[in-house]
Amino acid sequence: MDVKEIPKKPETFPGEVHPTPGGGILVTALDDVINWARSNSLWPLVFGTSCCAIEMMSTASAKYDWSRFGFEVARASPRQADVIIIAGTIVNKMGPVLKRLYDQMPDPKYVIAMGACATSGGPFFYNTYSVVKGADHIIPVDVYVAGCPPRPEALLHALISLQEKIRGGK
Ligand code: SF4
């Protein structure tokens, strides 16, 4: 007599994790939501060292109002900030201070170099022994803002560019 073989069920164990088709979609969507939330609630640590700081303060004032874009809460403590805005000249003596502030910020953290001095040493690039020739000699920079000083519109553009960068991240 012919005995028909019953197909075996795949063995499963309690608590076993099986791959779900399309599971990647959920993770990708979650990434997008987290990045969207993160990019819209950036708390800046203000590191104003000279003239560019005046334009940075102006960007926060009622006329330009960076809080419209989610940069509402400027912090004086690195432990409560996501993005450091370096606005002004960095002299050699300040280098270790900038590094320490950056190290104290929680991850993920971002850096904006505002103005020619923070970007490259600016007008002090030549013939000055005491100026750091760009913040990226000390910490990594995400967005550079050209100008001496940059106008508030330029800083707003940099902040929006940073938001776009964060939204595109994984
Ligand atoms: S870039 Fe120009 S305005 Fe800004 S800190 Fe340097 S000298 Fe001052």
Structural notes for this entry:
By secondary structure, this protein is α/β, with parallel strands linked by helices. It is built from five helices and four strands; from the N terminus they run αβαβαβαβα. Strands 1-2-3-4 form a four-stranded parallel sheet. Iron/sulfur cluster (SF4) binds next to helix 4. The site of iron/sulfur cluster (SF4) has 12 residues, from helix 4.
Features:
binds iron/sulfur cluster
Overview in brief:
The protein is of the alpha/beta class and 170 residues long.
List the helices and strands and how they pair.
Blueprint: H1 23-39, E1 44-48, H2 52-60, E2 83-87, H3 95-104, E3 110-114, H4 115-120, E4 143-145, H5 152-167
Parallel strand pairs: 1-2, 2-3, 3-4
Helix pairs in contact: 1-5, 2-5
Bound molecules: iron/sulfur cluster (SF4).
Iron/sulfur cluster (SF4) is lined by residues 50-52, 88-89, 115-117, 122-123, 148-149.
For the largest beta sheet, what order do the strands appear in spatially?
1-2-3-4
Radius of gyration computed on alpha carbons: 24 Å
Instruction: State the end-to-end distance.
Output: 61 Å
Report the β-strand fraction as a percent range.
5-15%
* CATH top-level class: Alpha Beta
Outline the low-pLDDT stretches: none
CATH architecture, please? 3-Layer(aba) Sandwich
Ligand kinds: iron/sulfur cluster
H/E series, N to C? HEHEHEHEH
How would you characterize the largest beta sheet?
4 strands, parallel
Q: What's the total helix number?
A: 5
- SS elements, strand count: 4
- Average the pLDDT over all residues and give the rounded result: 85
Q: And the CATH topology?
A: Rossmann fold
How many domains comprise the coordinates?
1
